[in-house]
Amino acid sequence: MSNQNKMIRPLSRGLHGDVAIPGDKSISHRSIMLSSLADTEVHITNFLHAQDCLSTAKCFAALGADINFLTDTELTVKGHGLHGLHEAAGILDAGNSGTTLRLMLGLMAAQPFLTTFTGDASLSQRPMGRVIKPLTAMGARIYGREQNTKLPITVVPAAGKLQGTCYHSPVASAQVKSALLLAGLYAEGATTVVEPYVSRNHTERMLAAFGVTPECEGTAVTVRPVQSLIAPAEIEVPGDISSAAYWLVAGSIIPGSRLCLHNVGVNETRTGILEVLSNMGASLELRNQRESCGEAAADIVVTASRLHGVTFGGSIMPRLIDEVPIIAVAAMLADGDTVINDAGELRVKETDRLQAIHDEFNKIAPGSVEIDGDTMVIHGGRPCHAAEVSSYDDHRMAMSLAILGAATAGAEIQNGDCVNISYPEFYDTLARLAD
């Protein structure tokens, strides 16, 4: 990853144009994973060709799946059945991708061979115990640094079949839930995950597309063991609403802007940002609503408007947790205060995003952001000035700081190229829309 700083200049006019939103990162990961467990070829389009998803592709190719990229965003995947993975010749590198590592821990826990994972410096500091603990209770044998919570991590074949479980997760986490559901495909008996709130459900929807029917009741999801997966011939990945979020906010806060965002995934477990922005007074119009492979998509037209502060938290947080940094940008330019409660999950992302928002946003608008435990208060409308800020090698912080700088007085972002993790075209798109 480049360590170059990125200069963002303040915009003198609004943003205008059309944006084809890159493929959803969560769905791109899962399309590779489940296709690698089937035995017929799957044609995947609008795949997110970014570092995180390529880490998943490389891992499954090393485990024996036939993965063939036709273009950057189009590929075919053919596995050798649910039990067709084989031991990799070397260590699997998950890069910066928590999704790759956590979901694969669930899958590898059920395999009859040894697997060792590594990752980059950031991923090596992220907590894996929240996945490893319930998998161990199912009979998995997983070993890592710092009491089996940190990379490198080795998965040793279980003594027998994994045992189904009913796990009450203390956090609403799609990665924890997905790891257990994937392990549950191989387990003895049913596997149920109960969450405090419903987290994003891309794994459940993708399993249904592969012939597995998860049982969903309230905040509980159950899978039962299967003999095989039935792969769809085609998977069209919708655009990632987390990537669209930067343009939703930029189009709302930069005067004179009007943008049309094409093919945005609007899965109901991901649309918290649309609700919050609408409550803030944003002008958002959904057009051409449709569905592909169980996932809803739409085009969204956003027009600049005057925003005002809001308060949110609780059950909506799992539906917008990755979008909190860019929502905080909207709050900086809004009238009045915005209060974000129950934001503790931000502390265990690529960086401590709660602290990072406080430290870096206050460099641009001093006194704008206060944090108290898991609550963040943003005072909108404070004077802004150009500043050098840190991305912490966190793609979502870098893009949020870029939009904040463009909408105010400019910014110089340290290690700004980390956007390649999820959105390599981000800066080029910003420049095009500003022309």
What this model shows, in words?
By secondary structure, this protein is an alpha/beta fold. The chain has two domains: 6-23 and 238-434, UDP-n-acetylglucosamine1-carboxyvinyl-transferase, Chain (Alpha-beta prism); 25-236, Enolpyruvate transferase domain (UDP-n-acetylglucosamine1-carboxyvinyl-transferase, Chain, Alpha-beta prism), CATH 3.65.10. It has helices at residues 25-35, 51-62, 98-108, 129-137, 145-148, 174-184, 202-209, 241-253, 272-279, 324-332, 353-364, 395-407, 426-434; strands spanning 6-8, 16-20, 42-45, 66-69, 75-78, 92-93, 115-118, 141-144, 150-156, 166-168, 191-194, 215-217, 220-223, 234-236, 258-265, 283-292, 295-303, 311-312, 337-340, 369-372, 375-379, 387-390, 411-414. The strands form six sheets. It has a four-stranded mixed β-sheet with strand order 2-15-17-16. A four-stranded mixed β-sheet has the order 4-5-3-14, with helices on one face. A hairpin with a 2-residue loop joins strand 20 and strand 21. It is globular. The mean pLDDT is 97.
